[in-house]
């Protein structure tokens, strides 16, 4: 066997391997009614599109190494936690949207070589959703796998939800009850009803609720409550960014104050302003796993530069030190029990 033959065999093997990879992980779109799941590999271009007169509504997204299971996006713990707001910012409310599956698209400054895939779940709706205002994002993932994400912009998506897991409750004023279909479908329903405050998921299905509080909350595995952040945020000062389901990791020497039994996020803003904190992390009804229940509804106010990890049931707030007039946000008052 001569040298030229060896080179030919080697090139053929490489081409065959690349073809196999493309077949296994090629970009594809899966349909289920008016819902679509589009996936693409790193460095590919993908296109979200709707028929004429319909508009893109982003339901979920994950960039890193996610998978699809029963038409739900299963996220890897190391996936970029800011994928959804970036995709919403780029594509929400458009008829067609082209995206490059790259770290640059998601404003990732770190060198990350283990990200391979982007998955987006969306629907086409006849009523044009409000487009998400543009804001700057800087994202880094450290050697310890902890994310540091900075949001700089006018406002964040008001349709974000706080996730309270393994909790079941009773809704005083139900708007809609359905058999369980999927979290994204329920969120879509709630987003289209202005009076919908939160969603209760349990073995019976899901319930959209108008009440400003829930009652008889009990621990129940696999049940969950999703609460619109617009009803929790309170009066966000203009210099703050507030994000649900993210925990700002605060080193012990960076904690300058702690608050117990926090029932209003406004109280945290006021305390943070008083002591000039840089950021805060607030646990909610889920608390910290493996730690005393005393750490439910507990706030840590910190100085320094925050690090981030995905943590459902937490609220993270960052003081950008660029104060303007406060933005007025809705917050229910006079309720029996706290939403958080």
From TrEMBL:
**Residues spanning the signal sequence:** none
The chain positions of domain SUEL-type lectin read 48-124
**One of the record's GO molecular function terms:** carbohydrate binding
What name appears for this protein in its UniProt entry? SUEL-type lectin domain-containing protein
Q: Which organism is it from?
A: Plasmodium chabaudi adami
